[in-house]
Structure formats: structure tokens, C-alpha cells
Design a protein that fits this description.
mainly alpha, 2 domains, 24 helices
Length: 530
């Protein structure tokens, strides 16, 4: 087996950790449609079940820094796979909301560990000129995991236990596969096992490059020898800049709203006009395919075009798609409120005993079409009305989901238009994310930290990512209900704009640089955009 094939095999096997994350992110979106009925989950209950895995991921990521530093990325990925298998089977066997929540917390521990260990391990094994491509494999496998879970959701619906149970498969693949992979040469060198480190470098790099890499590793270790670990993580300029840049981007990656949209994609499409669960799942499957295809494109461009260029283009597309989506929901909200107000005013003119339509219309003008049905129902319950008026209101307006987010259209024309506009905007958003913020945040986390700060630095950045993921997952449905879809998407668009500005002003280019050269670049007083 030649060197390139061997390195790619290592990267592919390690990237299977992405399958864990991707499968769970996707499978919960479909399972929620049936868990909601099985366990009678409210919006808050769904947020708890969804976010439990993120709490586990946060804790797993923080603990993974110490574990990878002590036992290496190979061992950490094996542990993550084993934990995920146990959590997947426990989720499938759950008989209560509490059991399911705790099982998903366990799943999250496995995801958090591999989120730190996989990019770190690949980054230390891969040659400099292919490092971005190989770390991108982790994000590619996340998208493949999401796509597979969407297919499973469609095939297994409504059997949510099967959906969760099949998650054990990627866990087994990761745990078993990593047992045949070598330890990272940089970790081996940090433990004083130079001969073993040289053997791994000789198998993955050309002879001259392997000698130079080993020399750079030794020099780096000599410089950092004797310094306390907290100083290596926070005391040097290179480590501080790496920590600020990667953690900021990791947090912003979630505040842009990506996992909120993936978690609740079927529900978003249902509320936008794809009425039944199957139609919503099919629309979600299209999003999953786009996610995989766009990530494939990134693999061919990340080391040629550079990290900054892809991030700038991708974030620009996300700002545009989220902005259009938010404005579209706002426009339909305003139009439907006006139509509903006119409808009730006309009814009032025909009734012998008015239903205070003027007051109702005043409330309607400030609220959404879904709130209209709720207000009308309350008015009918408190004021006397002829039976035929009650029937008219019920069949015309209460056929919509009164518990759904408040700014979704009630007219059939508006619903159909918004359904397809939502699908197009989400596809554009997912595509732009998949070739920029999706893979490149993990690439940067895996390559920017100095050697001795790599484990703890990765853990902090990944912990920030999952904490932000938890915040978004735990509040998204509440935001939709309280603020409406329009304002929620506009908030995400604003965060995307802020992220774009951060990249433009603070992110140096790392493509084509060795890990040691990146450390030197980060130690400079100003970013270098090569």
C-alpha cells in the first residue's frame, strides 16, 4: 500500500467519528415527529430531548482534551465509538422521556470525545498539502451521517426505536476500525517514543519530509519543555490567538443556526406548507443530499482556494439566503394578517350579535395568521354567537395548527409559495454552509494550536461549539413561537454577517503551511493572508 492510500485510509477511518455526530443530528429530526405523540412532548419537552445530546457533547469535549493528551487520539476515538454504541441501544430501548433523555446524554459523550479527537488526530497524521482535504473528511462524514439518518427516517417511520438503534452501526465501525490505526507521531514524540513516531512518519510522508517533520516536532517539544500546561494553552501569543479564533468561529458556527435547522427541518417544512410528515421528510432528504454534494466540492477546493476564500463566499451566501427567508416569512405574515382582519370584519357586518370584530381586527393586525385562529376561538367561547357563525370560524380558521409558530401563512396560495421558497432558501443556506463554515471550522480547530496546547485547545473550542449548539437547540422552537420564524431567521442572518466580518479582519490563511509554520504565523503581530 502506497503512502497516499495509507494516509487516506487512516483519515477515512477516523472520520467515521463524524458519522456518529451526523447520524444523531439527523435521526432526531425525524424521530421527533413520532416521539412527540408517543411521549406527549411539548415544544419544551422536544427541546430537552434534543438538547440532552448536546449537554453530553459539551462534557465529552471538555474531558476529551485531557484524555487525548494522556492516551492519544487513536484511543480517544475507540472510546467514543464504544460509548456511542451503548447510548444508541439505550435510546432505542427507552420507555420514558427521562430514560430517553439520559440515553441521549450518553450518546452526546461519545460525540463530544470524537469531535475533539478526530480532527486533531487527522491533522497530526496528514501531510501539510493535503491536511485541509483530509480534515474535511470529518465534516463530509457528518453530512453522510445526516443523509443516511434521513433515509432511515423515511424507511423506518414511524418506528423510532429502529431509527435510534441503527445508530450503533457507526459506533462499532469507529471503535473496531481505530484499533488497527497507528498512534499520532506527534503524540508518540510527546511521550518520548521517538522511534515509533519516526516509523509512522516514514509510512505517511516522503523520506525527506519525514525527517524534517520529526526535527520540527523535536524542536517544538524542546522549546515548550518545562513550561506548565496552562501557560502553553493561554500564555503564548500563538496559543491565545488560536484559542480566540477557533473558539469564536466554533461558537458562531452554531449561532448561525445550522443544527437548529437540521434538527427541526421536517417541522420547518411542515409549517411552511409541506403538510404531512412524509412530504416534510422528503423535503428534508433533499437538503441532506445537497449537504453531502457541497461538502464533496469543498474537499477539492480547501487546499487550493484556501480557508479564507471559501469562508468569505460561503458566509455571504448564508447572509443572503437567511435574509430572504426571514423577509419572506415577514411578508406572508403581514399579508395574511390583513386578509384575516378583513374576513372577521365582513363576518361582523352579517351577524345580528356582533363578535367585536373591530377589536379582533386590531389584535390581528399586530399578530400572525395562526394567532388569528386562537383569538377567534377565544372570542367565540366568551361571546354568544349563532351556530352557523361558529361553524364558519371553525372550518375556515381553526383547521390550522394553533400551537405552531405564529408567522406562518394561512392562505393556500401563500402556503404553497412559502413552502417552495423555504425549500430553495434552505438548500442555498445548507450548500453555502457545507463548503465553508461546516468543514472549515473543524479544519482550523485541528491545525491552529501549538503541539502541547492542542488537546486542551481543541477541547475548549469544541466545548464552546457544543455549548452554543445546546443553546440553539434548547431555544429554537421557543424562538419560533415567541419571535416568529421571520425574526428568528433574521437573527441568524445577522450572526452570519458578524461572522463574515470576523473572518475578514481576524483569520489568517493556513492552507499549505505545516503545523509548526502556522504556530510561527500566529505568533506574528498581524495576521498573514497567504
Amino acid at each position: 500500500m502506497n503512502k497516499n492510500t495509507y494516509v487516506m485510509l487512516i483519515a477515512i477511518m477516523t472520520a467515521c467519528g463524524g458519522l456518529l455526530f451526523g447520524y444523531d443530528v439527523g435521526v432526531i429530526s425525524g424521530a421527533l415527529l413520532f416521539l412527540e405523540k408517543k411521549f406527549e412532548l411539548s415544544d419544551q419537552g422536544q427541546e430537552v430531548v434534543t438538547s440532552a445530546v448536546l449537554v453530553g457533547s459539551f462534557l465529552g469535549a471538555l474531558g476529551a482534551g485531557w484524555y487525548t493528551r494522556r492516551f492519544g487520539g487513536r484511543s480517544a476515538n475507540m472510546l467514543a465509538g464504544a460509548i456511542f454504541v451503548v447510548g444508541a441501544f439505550a435510546s432505542a430501548a427507552s420507555g420514558s422521556t427521562e430514560t430517553l433523555t439520559m440515553s441521549r446524554l450518553l450518546v452526546g459523550l461519545g460525540i463530544g470525545i470524537t469531535a475533539v479527537a478526530a480532527p486533531l488526530y487527522i491533522g497530526e497524521i496528514a501531510p501539510p498539502d493535503r491536511r485541509g482535504q483530509m480534515i474535511t473528511l470529518y465534516q463530509l462524514f457528518i453530512t453522510i451521517g445526516i443523509l443516511v439518518s434521513y433515509i432511515v427516517d423515511l424507511a423506518a417511520a414511524p418506528h423510532w426505536r429502529i431509527m435510534f438503534g441503527l445508530g450503533a452501526v457507526p459506533g462499532v465501525v469507529l471503535a473496531v476500525g481505530m484499533s488497527f490505526m497507528p498512534s499520532s507521531p506527534r503524540w508518540l514524540a510527546s511521550r518520548g517514543r521517538m522511534d515509533e513516531a519516526k516509523k509512522v512518519l516514514d509510512r505517511t510522508l516522503e523520506p525527506a519530509m519525514a525527517e524534517r517533520a520529526l526535527k520540527d516536532i523535536k524542536n517544538d517539544l524542546d522549546i515548550q519543555k518545562g513550561l506548565p500546561h496552562w501557560w502553553l494553552a493561554f500564555g503564548t501569543r500563538a496559543a491565545r490567538r488560536a484559542l480566540v479564533i477557533t473558539t469564536t468561529l466554533a461558537v458562531l458556527q452554531q449561532f448561525i443556526g445550522i443544527n437548529a435547522i437540521i434538527y427541526y427541518a421536517p417541522r420547518i417544512f411542515q409549517k411552511a406548507g409541506f403538510a404531512d410528515a412524509k412530504a416534510a421528510l422528503w423535503a428534508t432528504l433533499v437538503v441532506g443530499v445537497v449537504n453531502v454534494v457541497a461538502t464533496f466540492i469543498t474537499m477539492g477546493m480547501v487546499d487550493k482556494s484556501g480557508r479564507r476564500t471559501l469562508l468569505i463566499w460561503g458566509l455571504s451566501g448564508m447572509v443572503a439566503s437567511l435574509g430572504i427567508l426571514g423577509l419572506a416569512f415577514k411578508q406572508f405574515d403581514h399579508a395574511d394578517a390583513q386578509k384575516s382582519a378583513q374576513h372577521y370584519s365582513q363576518q361582523d357586518a352579517q351577524q345580528s350579535e356582533p363578535l367585536s370584530a373591530a377589536q379582533t381586527a386590531k389584535q390581528i393586525s399586530a399578530q400572525s395568521a395562526n394567532e388569528t385562529a386562537k383569538i377567534a376561538a377565544q372570542r367565540l367561547a366568551t361571546d354568544p354567537a349563532p351556530p352557523h357563525d361558529l361553524a364558519a370560524v371553525t372550518t375556515t380558521d381553526l383547521s390550522v395548527d394553533v400551537a405552531s409558530p405564529r408567522d406562518l401563512p394561512s392562505t393556500s396560495e401563500g402556503a404553497e409559495t412559502l413552502a417552495w421558497l423555504t425549500l430553495v432558501c434552505v438548500i442555498v443556506y445548507i450548500a453555502c454552509f457545507a463548503f465553508s463554515m461546516g468543514p472549515l471550522v473543524w479544519v482550523l480547530i485541528g491545525e491552529m494550536f501549538p503541539l502541547q496546547a492542542r488537546g486542551s485547545g481543541n477541547a475548549i473550542a469544541c466545548g464552546g461549539n457544543y455549548f452554543a449548539n445546546f443553546i440553539v437547540g434548547a431555544t429554537f422552537l421557543t424562538l419560533l413561537t415567541k419571535l416568529g420564524a421571520s425574526n428568528t431567521f433574521l437573527i441568524f442572518a445577522s450572526v452570519a454577517m458578524f461572522t463574515l466580518l470576523f473572518v475578514l479582519f481576524f483569520l489568517p490563511e493556513t492552507a499549505g503551511r505545516t503545523l509548526e509554520q502556522i504556530e510561527q504565523d500566529l505568533g506574528e503581530k498581524t495576521p498573514t493572508a497567504r
